[in-house]
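Team,

Forwarding the record for the chain on the shared tracking sheet. I've put the sequence and predicted structure together so nobody has to dig through attachments.
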Amino acid sequence: LARVLNAREPVIVNGPEIMDKFVGEAERNIRDLFQPAEKEWEQRGEESELHMIVFDEFDAIAKSRGNSIGDSSGTRDSVVNQLLTKLDGVEEISNVLVVAITNRKDLIDPALLRPGRLEVHVEIEAPKTEQQRKDILKILLNPMCECGRISTRDLNIIIDSVAKRK
């Protein structure tokens, strides 16, 4: 996606890694992710390059506010607040694309999913047929065959064996 959009190399973040046991650190981690884009926007404005931030396991940091059991510090709520500020804060910056990946969209704070924030939602279902699983495995494992790590014969055996499992 970054290549197609001629964006900078994306920053890929594992959601749980944002959290920190020290008060204020998780929020600082969020601010630090946006800082390079903000700095470039200040310097170059519309001429700045597109920055991408990809959050994997987004539900780990973006759960609905007010009901985080076991989070007596309120850290999770303030992380969501910090994200909201960065997504549509007082100062607009138009050179950031945020992609959030989760398998638990139902846990995400609704404010983050509103228009102008994380508004485009794409659901990718698990493959239902053996052929679909084979196609995915072939795409993922073919580079190993091309670089000589496994033979074509072994590749086909692996794909056939794994694709039969549900």
